Amino acid sequence: HVQLVESGGGSVQAGGSLTLSCRVSPPTYSSPCMAWFRQPPGKVREAVAAIDPDRSYYAESVRGRFAISRDSHENTVDLQMNSLTPEDSAMYYCAADRTWGNILRGTPNYWGQGTQVTVS
Questions:
Q1: From residue 14, how far is each of 74, 77, 82, 88, 118 by CA, in Å?
Q2: Which pLDDT does position 47 carry in this prediction?
């Protein structure tokens, strides 16, 4: 079955950077649409960034600070996060789906377990 495993979370001071990585398995599974979501404590989960072969999406709150990229050969998707603020603190989730619409609706088929990002 499909698994998404995130890594790279942690604690960082405001203004710092982190890179999250998500590995999709099995290697034979290829999803055209990949995304990162986040959920701060007590708040709803929101899409942070998404990518497919033709486009990318960024939430307004992270545009210009975060960058999503994928390595189709390695079956990974990364989220480079710069200029972090305490408002970026959340559990970050990797997600995958075959359709862009499901990503934007927040209903992708596959989710990772999440990785915590704490900015102080």
A1: 31, 24, 10, 9, 9
A2: 96
Query: Given CA atoms 8, 69, 26, 97 in this order, what sign does their dihedral have?
Result: positive
What's the chain's Rg over C-alpha atoms?
A: 13
Q: Which helix (H) or strand (E) holds 23?
A: strand 18-25
What DSSP designation does 43 have?
S
DSSP string, 72-119: TTTTEEEEEE-S--GGG-EEEEEEEES-HHHHHTT--SEE---EEEEE
- Non-local (6+) Cβ contacts of 42 within 8 A are none
Residues of the chain with pLDDT under 70: none
3-state helix, strand, coil in the chain (%, to 5): 5, 50, 40
pLDDT for 16-41, tens place per residue?
999 999 999 887 777 889 999 999 99
* Residues near 1 by beta carbon (within 8 Å), at least 6 away in sequence: none
Token pair 């604690």: residue: 11
